[in-house]
Design goal:
Rossmann fold; 9 strands; binds guanosine-5'-monophosphate; single chain
Length: about 210
C-alpha cells in the first residue's frame, strides 16, 4: 500500500510545527519532509533537521532542475519541498507530513489528489498576534508581514479537509494523530483488502435470504 501525504498548513504562530513534531514522536509510520529554505537559521535550529538552509543561488539551481514538488516565497524568503523525497517515501508505503504555507498546499492539491489537507488555526487572531510577538523570532518588519500574511491564510480554511483549532497542544497532537489513523483505514485506501472478498458477492446472496 502506498503511503499518504499529509499537508499541514496555517498561519505562522498557530503551532503547526509543534503539533507536527509531537505527532512524529508518537507515530512510527510517519516521516517529516524537511524543506529547503533561504531563510536565516534561528537559534536552536539545525541544518538537515529543521530545514536544509541554502543560499538563493542554490535554491534557484534546484528550481531549475525541477527538484521541488512545490516552492513559494513565504514572508520574504524562499521555501521548497523535495519532489524526490516525497515521491520515494510515499511509494515505499511511508506516510509523509509536510509543514508548508497555504499557497504551497494549494499547489500540492492540484498535483496529488489523494493527499490530505489539514489546517491549523489559532483560537483567535488576537492570540495569534500575541504568540508571534512573544516568541521573538522575527524583527518588527518581518512580524508585520507574518501578521498580514496570516489574514490571507485564514481566509483559505474552506479549501482544507480538516481543521485543528490549537487551544491546547496535547489535544491538537491527538487530533492530528486521529486524522492520520482514520485516513489509513479508509475503505477507499484499502483496495487490496477489499478486493480479496469481491468474489463473495454472488455467493453471499443465498446466505442473506
Ligand atoms: P518558518 O520560517 O516560520 O519556519 O516558516 C514560514 C512558513 O513557511 C510556514 O508557514 C511554513 O509552513 C512554510 N514553509 C516551510 N517549508 C515550506 C515549503 O517547503 N514550501 C512552502 N510552500 N512553505 C513552506
Amino acid at each position: 500500500m502506498e503511503g499518504i501525504l499529509f499537508v499541514m498548513s496555517g498561519p505562522s504562530g498557530a503551532g503547526k510545527t509543534t503539533i507536527v513534531k509531537g505527532s512524529l514522536n508518537e507515530l512510527e509510520d510517519v516521516e517529516f519532509s524537511i524543506s529547503y529554505t533561504t531563510r536565516p537559521r534561528r537559534k536552536g535550529e539545525r541544518n538537515g533537521k529543521d530545514y536544509f538552509f541554502i543560499s538563493e543561488e542554490e535554491f534557484k539551481a534546484l528550481t531549475e532542475k525541477k527538484e521541488f514538488l512545490e516552492w513559494q516565497a513565504v514572508h520574504g524568503h524562499l521555501y521548497g519541498t523535495s519532489k524526490h523525497y516525497v515521491r520515494s517515501k510515499v511509494s515505499l508505503g511511508v506516510n509523509v507530513l509536510l509543514d508548508i504555507d497555504v499557497k504551497g498546499a494549494m499547489n500540492v492539491k492540484k498535483q496529488i489528489k489523494d493527499a490530505v489537507f489539514v489546517f491549523v488555526a489559532p483560537p483567535s487572531f488576537k492570540e495569534l498576534k500575541e504568540r508571534l510577538v512573544k516568541r521573538h523570532t522575527e524583527n518588527q518588519k518581518e512580524l508585520k508581514k507574518r501578521i498580514e500574511d496570516a489574514k490571507h491564510e485564514l481566509s483559505q480554511i474552506a479549501e482544507f479537509d480538516y481543521l485543528i483549532v490549537n487551544h491546547d497542544i496535547q489535544q491538537s497532537i491527538k487530533q492530528l494523530e486521529s486524522i492520520i489513523i482514520a485516513e489509513q483505514i479508509k475503505v477507499s485506501r484499502r483496495g487490496e483488502f477489499v478486493g480479496k472478498y469481491k468474489f463473495f458477492k454472488g455467493v453471499s446472496k443465498e446466505a442473506s435470504r
